[in-house]
Every structure is written in C-alpha cells, then in structure tokens.
Amino acid sequence: MSALSRTLYVPVAAVRPYLALKCTLILLAFDVWIARLYKGHGHGAGGFNVAHFGLLDAVQPSISAPLYVGVIVLTGALCLTIAIASRPPRALIVLAFLLHTWSWAMSMLDSYQHHYLLSIVLLALAFFPRLTAEEALLPPSAPVKRDAPGDEGKRKRRKKKQAEKKKEAPEGSALLRPFPLVSAGGYAFLAASVAVVYAYTALSKTDPEWLAGAALKSVLHLQENGMPAPGRDDPISFFRELAASFGLAGETFWWFMGHSVVGVQLVCALGYLLAPFRDVTTALWMHALGWLALFTALSFHLGAEYMGLEIGWFSYYMIGYALIFFLPGRWLVIAARALVPLLGASLGPEVIAARILAGLVLLAAGFGAELPVVGWLGVAILALTPIRLIAKAAWTREAASRETQTHHVALGAAGIGAAVLVAGGYIADMPGAPAAAIAGAVLLGAGVVYLLVAKGQARAIHGYGVGAAIAGLALIASMALSETRWDFYRNYGGNHRRLGEWAIAYHAYQKAVRYAPDDDAADSRQRRVDEMRANIERDGPRRP
Amino acid sequence: MSDREREWSTRIAQAGAGLVAVGALLLTFDVTAQEQRAFGWYALVPGVLALLAAGVLRGAADAAGVKAPPIVEPPQGKVATWLAIAFGAGLLVQALIPLRYYFGSDPYDERFAWRMFSNVRVYRCDLGAFETRSGYERPVSLMQTIHVGWGSLLRRNRPAVMDAYLEWRCEQEGVTAARLLNRCVSPAGEAVPDVVRRIDCADGALDDGEER
C-alpha cells in the first residue's frame, strides 16, 4: 500500500465516522428547525433577492418565505430520517447536501459561514463508510462484505460462523471489548476540511487590529478601553480575572488575547490534520497533541458561547467534532455502547446499567445547568432503555413469524411515517411546511417502491418509516418547545408592515399573537393587529 | 523502512517543536512590549508545518503496522485512484477559494474566506441611499424600501447586493438614477475610504469609486 493510501485510508475507530455522521445529521435537523427556520421571514420581502451565486439567481424560482421554510423543513426531515435509518444510501446524503446548500445559497440574507461549512461536511459524509450501529460498535469479527439480495445461503453460513466466533470470544467486560477499525477516506477528507477552516481563521486573525485586541473589543461590544459600557455585564470577566492572576492586565491583556486566538486556531488546524492517525499512532507526542487540540478547541468554542458571540449553533458542531476526532477511540466506543441501542445484540447487563447511569447524568446535568436539550436527551435515553428491552424480547420470540410478515410491517411503518410527517407539516403551522412534508412523504413512498421493486429489501424500509415518523414528531416538538413561530411571524409581520403590505402583516401579526410567549406585552401585540386591520379598512390590502 | 520513517519523523518533530517554542517566545516579547514585530510568526508557522510533516510521516508508518483488519476495507484499484483525486481536488478548491479574498481587490466581500468576526466585519458604517426623480436627488428610507437584512448587507459593502439594489431601484417608476454612499470607521476608530456606487438608469451603467 502506498504512503498516500496509508494516509488517506488510515484505519480509524469505526465509532468516529459513525458518530460524526449521526450527530451531524441529528444536530443539523434541529439546527435548521430551531435556529434557522424563523430567519425565513425576510426572504423575498419586497420582491428583492440576491443569491450567493449569479447562476442561482438565473435558474431558481422566485424566492419567498414559504419556499425557504419549505426547503428548511424538508432538509431537517430528511436529515433526521437518514440519521435514524440503519444504513442510508449515499444518494440521500447527497440530496441532504443539495437541499441544505440551496437553503443558504438561495439568498445572501443567510451569510453565516458555518452554513457553508456544513455543506462541506455533508459532502464529506457522503463518502463515509455505510455502517450500522452494530458494525461500528460491537467487537470486530470479519471485514464487512455486502451480500447480494438473493444470497440467503451465504448469509446463513456467515451468521453461523459469526455465532461460533462469538462463542469462542474471550469473556470480559462487554463495554471494554476491542473496537472495530474502518478505512474511511471521507473521514480524513472531513478532518482536512475542518483544518482548512481553522487555518484560514488563524490567517484572518493576524490582521494588526486583531493582534492588538481592538477587533476583539469591538466584537464583544466593549468600549475602546476594553471595559463594558456602564450598566452592562462584562462578557469576559472570567478570562480577565484569570489573566490578571498571571499578571496580564490592561492593554497587555488585549494583546495577549489577540495573539492567543491565532495560536488556538493553529493548534486546532494541526490537530485536525493529524486526527485520522489518532487510533494507529504509537507516538506519544501525537497523542499529547490530540489532547492539546481537544482542550484548545473546547476552550475556544465554550469560550465563544460563554462570551455570547452570535454564531448560531456553530460552537455545538465544533465541540462535537472536537470530541469525536480527538478523544481516544476506546472512550468514544464505551460512551457509544452505553448510549446507542444495538439491535439483536447484547453487550450484557453492565451496558444497560451504564445506559441508565448516562441517562440520569444527562438528565441531572441538563436540567441542572439549564440546558434542556441535554436534559431531554437523558429523558429519552431513560425512556428508550426499557422500550428496547421489551422490543428485543419480542423480536426474539416473534422472529420466525415476523420473517413472513416483513413486507406488511415495513409498509405499515412507511405509511405511519408518511402520515406523521404530513401531520407534522400541518401542525407546524408555518407557510411552506405542509408542502415540504408532503414532498417528504412522496420521497419516502418513492424510496419504499424502489427498495421493494428494485432491491427486494423490505426490512430496510422500517428505518425510513420510523425515521420519518420521528422527524414529524420532532418537527412538532421543535415548534412547540421553541419560539420559532413567534420569531418568524412577528418579524414577518414587521417586514411587511414597513413595506406597506397591510394584509400580509395583519395575518402574520395574528399568528404572532397566537404563538407569543406569556409576558406583559400582550396588549401591545394586539394593538399591532388592530392597527393593521385599520390600515386595511382605510387603504385596502397595501399602502397606496 | 518504517523504523527509518519513525526516526525521521521524530527528528522533524523535534525541530518543529523547537521552532514553535522560539516563535512563541518571540511573540511573547511582542505582547509584553505591545509591538507588532511579527518575527515570531516566521518561526512558529514553519514549526507547525514541520510538526504536520512529522505527524503524517509517523502516522503513515504506524498505519502500515496495524494488524487488525478494518471491517470496511479501503477501496482498491481505479476506485481508490479516482477517490484520491476527488478528495485532493476538493481540498485544493477549499484551500484556493479563500485566496480569492486575499488576492482580490474587494476587501468587503468576506464570504467563503473564513473571516468570522474579522476587523472588516466589525466596521461601524453609516449608509445613505439616494435616488433621482424628476431631476432631483432625494434620500431614500431604506427601512421602508427593503428588508432590514438587506440594509445590513448594504452597510457591509457587499458589491453584488449594492449592484442588485441599484438595478432594482431603476425598475421603479420615475427613478432615473440611484446612489449608495457608505461611510465606515475601523474598530480602532480610523476612517476608511467611503464606498460609493451609482447607477444611471438610462443605460444601466454602474460606476464605483472610493472617495474621501
């Protein structure tokens, strides 16, 4: 094998690409629904739009808020469905890449650079190995060889062999058993892509005003002397006090901060470029560098969140990638074995105990630290654990009879998934969401037909059906538990009020009143609705 | 062969670490003296590159010694070659796109250049929009004309948005010319050249000019 092949296809713990794929897709689904969907209020307002690329301006349909919302809803539903499906085809990840890329590229109103980064990530994910949870997390057996649909005999012989191997496998803690390796060129490509981002970020911060700290003061909305305006909180009080304990104060502190940002980016870039070797290298300095990069990346992105920098969910992605790329493979496997339910496989009672413990820790930490997403993740793990146990028992008992009913069950799952997704689109009550949900259901139907007719794989349909159903429910939950609809409709109303579109503003404000938070401003919101109604009565649907 | 690679890698890593240490020391002098002599970067960056080279050399050598077979084998033959070309081309494109900013003439369009929170991004700007009707130029209320998000992009001197806005104004009845004037100061409080974009609706000709 050439040096290039050894570098590009260096074996990595299978859990890394598996987690990178699943976590990105799940996080992206909620990111687009909770943090991005409401920003569609400005798309197409006043009939003005500029796409990121001139070519797109020439070929895309007229941009509007419903179109943007529809693309966003469909992107999220697709991401969540393929995250839950067992071994999604690359074509679906490419479709997610195209939808996501169009969602930001359609208008320069969305100029967040991390949306562009996520397009690169999705493109890299399309080249990741297609692994089931069992393949990625269970102790290694033999290299994966895909069977043709009709090779029942081969499959049975292999299962028998694997069962014999399992019997021969050494006893020991199920959590600590060896983890499988994969060759994943896409993973190395993703690591290098992230490194490019950090390297250029370092370059951009070598500007004299950044090195001297002036730009950082401006980013943090501080005064020229580096202090917050009277009456405002100091967003960097922690860092200021920490630096002061080392004798760094006044302008020297700002010079230090400006220079250290460049150093941080360089360490992260180097760390990501060498991350694919994390599981094979025996060099102590490379392991130390991995830890340094992890510490640096976490401190930088947690620091950015602490300082309240407005970068959407970018920090969450980068914190996740830092953990996935830099933590030792064994740690990741233990955590994933404890958290991810594995179908038809048992790792023993300690895994169930670890899963319950992890659920409790997440629940306590999430609700204790006012991070409800983490808390709800703990609740979900706690709820899923007994459900999985019951499902596994049922699976074993009913295996024989289920073999004959697979087609019915698969079609039932797909039907329920499509129905829940469409219901989610309507309940979301956002313009464009129902059309997107119907498009998603049609896509699911087309996939079902393809899997049944072309591939004869009924069982694979289950994952997509369940995924679509969960996507529908998650969409409803995202709308109900966040202020997305309130933010969208109040801004949508405001935009059209300023532009003199009284009728559109009136309907938007009515919806805004429905989804407004419970606070003291209810009267002023109702006054807006009344004002728009009066304008319509006076001028008609728009300002003359 | 592997032992030799490991030995070389260790030497390169030691040299790289030395350069990084020297660079960090020189930059510490810069910070304490509050001067931008920048010599530290000339040692630090080559040091980081040396560590990268050492890491790749060592990682590739160690990868050759892995005994456990991967559960998904690497692609072989032409597939492997084409994939390597695709990954290489993808990385090259990613590395080249930001250079468009650094070697280009437009300091304001920072898209795809990974310049989050750059000093340009935090310029404080005062934007004026004007249009000529019946021979008289009047200021335009952007808030009542265009979505507030586009106003922010105009304030950031995004050329494509400025041009599209001016062309769009020419489509409005009675407008014979339109102009945007953006006056900015840097985070350090220094005035930067004004950005002016004009359009003559008769022939659609756009002209730019930075004037002070």
Characterise the protein shown here:
Chain A has 23 helices and 2 strands. Chain A is an all-alpha fold and 544 residues long. Chain A has a two-stranded antiparallel ribbon. The longest helix of chain A has 56 residues, at 372-427. With 212 residues, chain B is of the alpha+beta class. In chain B, strands 2-1-3-4-5 form a 5-stranded antiparallel β-sheet. In chain B, β1 (124-133) and β2 (136-139) form a beta hairpin. In chain B, α1 (2-33) runs antiparallel to α2 (39-64). Chain B is elongated and about 85 Å long. At the A-B interface, α1, α6, β2, α9 and α10 of A face α1, α2, α3, α5 and α6 of B.
Across the major sheet of chain A, the strand order is 1-2
Please outline the major beta sheet of chain A. 2 strands, antiparallel
Biggest interface reads: A-B, 91 and 75 residues
Q: What fraction strand of chain A?
A: under 5%
Low-confidence stretches of chain A: 142-152
The poorly predicted ranges of chain B are none
Structural category of chain B: alpha+beta
Count of helix runs of chain A: 23
Tell me the series of helices and strands of chain B, N- to C-terminal.
HHHHEEHHEEE
Could you give the count of β-strands of chain B?
5
Write the layout of secondary structure elements.
The complex is a heterodimer of chains A (544) and B (212).
Chain A: H1 3-8, E1 11-13, H2 15-36, H3 54-59, H4 65-84, H5 90-105, H6 113-125, H7 133-137, H8 152-168, E2 181-183, H9 185-204, H10 208-211, H11 214-219, H12 237-245, H13 250-274, H14 284-306, H15 314-326, H16 329-339, H17 349-368, H18 372-427, H19 433-455, H20 459-481, H21 484-498, H22 502-515, H23 522-539
Antiparallel strand pairs in A: 1-2
Helix pairs in contact in A: 2-4, 2-6, 2-15, 4-5, 4-19, 4-20, 5-6, 6-9, 9-13, 13-14, 14-15, 17-18, 18-19, 18-20, 19-20, 21-22, 22-23
Chain B: H1 2-33, H2 39-64, H3 77-96, H4 99-102, E1 124-133, E2 136-139, H5 148-155, H6 159-170, E3 175-185, E4 194-200, E5 205-211
Antiparallel strand pairs in B: 1-2, 1-3, 3-4, 4-5
